Amino acid sequence: MDSGDTVTAEELLSFARQGHRLPDWQGERGIELDEFLAGVNHSEAPTAGRPEGSARWWATHYSKGQPLVDIVMPSLDARGS
């Protein structure tokens, strides 16, 4: 997606919007993609488009146990996360 492959991005988003797992990646990938896919496919990950979806869950998941910085809290609170 770094090269501006918007078709691939839209395809991946369509899986998420339908609540499906993303297909296994067949090409080269780095640690960032592995970490992203682990979050997207996590059994406790909120499903896109559902009211119970939580921005706080995503922020906490990707913070890897580090405390969230104060500046993000108003945004998370405003989303009702």
Low-pLDDT residue intervals, each spanning 5 or more residues? none
Helix amount: 40-55%
Intertermini distance: 28 Å
Quaternary arrangement of the chains shown? single chain
Question: Which structural class is indicated by helix and strand composition?
Answer: mainly alpha
Q: Tell me, briefly, the overall form.
A: globular
Number of helices: 4
Q: C-alpha Rg, in Å?
A: 14 Å
Q: How much β-strand is present in the residues?
A: under 5%
How would you state the average pLDDT, rounded? 76
**What's the β-strand tally?**
0
SSE run = HHHH
List the domain count as a whole number. 2
Q: Quick one: biggest sheet? A: none
A few lines on this structure:
By secondary structure, the protein is mainly alpha-helical. The chain is built from 4 helices and no strands.
Describe the protein's topology.
Elements: H1 6-17, H2 31-40, H3 55-62, H4 73-78
Protein architecture, described:
The chain is mostly helical and 81 residues long. The protein has two domains: 1-41, no CATH class; 51-81, no CATH class. The chain has four helices and no strands.
Key structural traits:
4 helices, 81 residues, mainly alpha
